[in-house]
């Protein structure tokens, strides 16, 4: 998989995309991540990429010329399965979307900034608009990092145990069951006896019941879906 991220603040993406599972996936040639500074495509002598909105009001808008240039440069080299724009008014991101994106070959992510981007970019280039929640960030870089992380970890070979991702929360519209590790007893707090029984069928049934109960208590909306 190849992910190209378009941003005006590439420094914000350095740490999140260069450690842990993502770094191992890159080292093992399972995934590629390329960061493109939109300012490099600006013809302004000061490398400005924003301007005032025609509608007036507070806040600046990202100009379309440098964004068009970088998008057309990249699309001239390869075909993209999705060109994503990270925006508060996009579709709510969830595990199903991450699963769908994980089987794509090439993805481009445009990070919003300032007050937003020129609508013509959204009209003519963007194929999917994604929001990671009902709140506003300074820019879309952190959202892009979240999307990249959640997608890459699902690619076969990215994780040491490929079955681990299949038991994550939300994969079956359920939250994960409670987890325990050694010691079996600490300050009188005991691990449930069923987990120490060695009976894998009973343990699996207990986990399913616990996952359902936790979901019912904490996220009943998932069960309605």
Structural account:
It is a single chain. The protein has 225 residues and is α/β, with parallel strands linked by helices. The protein folds into two domains: 2-152, Alpha/beta knot (3-Layer(aba) Sandwich); 170-224, Trp Operon Repressor, Chain A (Orthogonal Bundle). Helix content is 31%, strand content 19%. It contains seven helices and nine strands; from the N terminus they run E-H-E-E-E-H-E-H-E-H-E-H-E-E-H-H. The strands form three sheets. The chain has a five-stranded parallel β-sheet, with helices on one face. 24% of the residues are buried.
Helical residue percent band:
25-40%
The N- to C-terminal Cα distance equals 30 Å
Largest sheet: 5 strands, parallel
Q: What gross morphology would you assign? A: elongated
Low-confidence stretches: none
Task: Tell me the domain tally.
Answer: 2
Q: Give the name of the CATH architecture of the largest domain.
A: 3-Layer(aba) Sandwich
What Rg, in angstroms, do the CA atoms define? 22 Å
Q: Give, in order, the helices and strands.
A: EHEEEHEHEHEHEEHH
CATH superfamily of the largest domain: SPOUT methyltransferase, trefoil knot domain
Q: Report the CATH topology name of the largest domain.
A: Alpha/beta knot
CATH class of the largest domain: Alpha Beta
The strand order across the widest sheet is 2-1-6-5-7
Task: Output the number of helix runs.
Answer: 7
Strand percentage = 15-25%
